[in-house]
Design goal:
Layout: H1 4-13, H2 29-36, H3 48-63, H4 67-83, H5 87-91, H6 98-112, H7 118-129, H8 136-150, E1 153-160, H9 166-177, E2 186-193, E3 200-205, E4 208-213, H10 214-228
Parallel strand pairs: 1-2
Antiparallel strand pairs: 1-3, 3-4
Helix pairs in contact: 1-6, 2-3, 3-8, 4-8, 6-7
Length: 229
């Protein structure tokens, strides 16, 4: 999707594309976060540079009443990372020129389509101007944490040796929602595939892990046999 060839093509078509310099220092999302969060309190604290930007974006989205559209756009960026393995490497390139960054931001907005509201557009431009495009993937993940917390969701991660069908995932969601582990919160189900567990499931909800994998049972059996020899 976003490749060096695509960037060069955009630069050739519009060589004058650069970030305009504001007459006064631009108030970045990261710098604004410390003051803005005094008015808007995120439901959960996230840390690191990406966490600072994610918190500031959440604050800006709340203040501009664009929280849901912004969450949709960030989810779209997450999908973009999943579909394009080269994207992270491109954004983390330390030698990107202003024209490169302008081309990348334009391509990201194009990929998001109508989901790229003004809050997201300004945010992407700020990341580019501050040479922070490389933290975008972390921002997407941290923003998802904040949004889940704001919706009262708790993440249910089901790891299996093969991809599970929706019917199985729905049955697991129903079972866990009736247990003490859900704590009455809405579950956000995610299926991860790890062939190394051989079979069975590993279920993670919040800070709890239920390991029902074949690999875990084999490990316990091997330890039992070793201890008895």
């Amino acid at each position: 999707m976003l490749s060096r060839q695509a960037i060069r093509s955009i630069r050739a078509a519009a060589p004058a594309r650069t970030f305009a310099r504001a007459p006064a220092p631009v108030r970045s999302y990261a710098a604004a976060a410390a003051n803005a969060t005094q008015d808007v309190k995120p439901p959960v604290a996230v840390y690191g540079v990406d966490g600072t930007y994610a918190t500031a974006l959440y604050t800006a989205a709340v203040k501009t009443s664009t929280l849901e559209p912004t969450a949709k756009a960030l989810s779209g960026l997450g999908d973009l990372y999943a579909r394009d393995p080269k994207l992270a490497a491109i954004l983390e390139t330390p030698t990107l020129s202003d024209a490169d960054k302008g081309a990348i931001v334009a391509e990201l907005q194009k990929a998001l389509g109508g989901a790229a509201n003004e809050t997201v557009k300004n945010f992407l431009a700020t990341l580019a101007e501050n040479n922070r495009l490389g933290v975008l993937r972390g921002v997407v993940d941290k923003f998802a944490e904040i949004i889940s917390a704001s919706r009262g969701e708790v993440e249910l991660v089901v790891t299996s040796a093969q991809q599970l069908d929706n019917r199985t995932l729905n049955r697991l969601e129903t079972a866990v929602s009736k247990s003490q582990y859900s704590q009455g919160k809405k579950l956000k189900v995610r299926n991860e595939v790890n062939p190394e567990i051989i079979g069975g499931l590993v279920v993670e909800i919040g800070d709890r892990t239920i390991d029902l994998s074949v690999s875990s049972k084999l490990a316990k059996m091997n330890k039992l046999l070793t201890d008895n020899l």
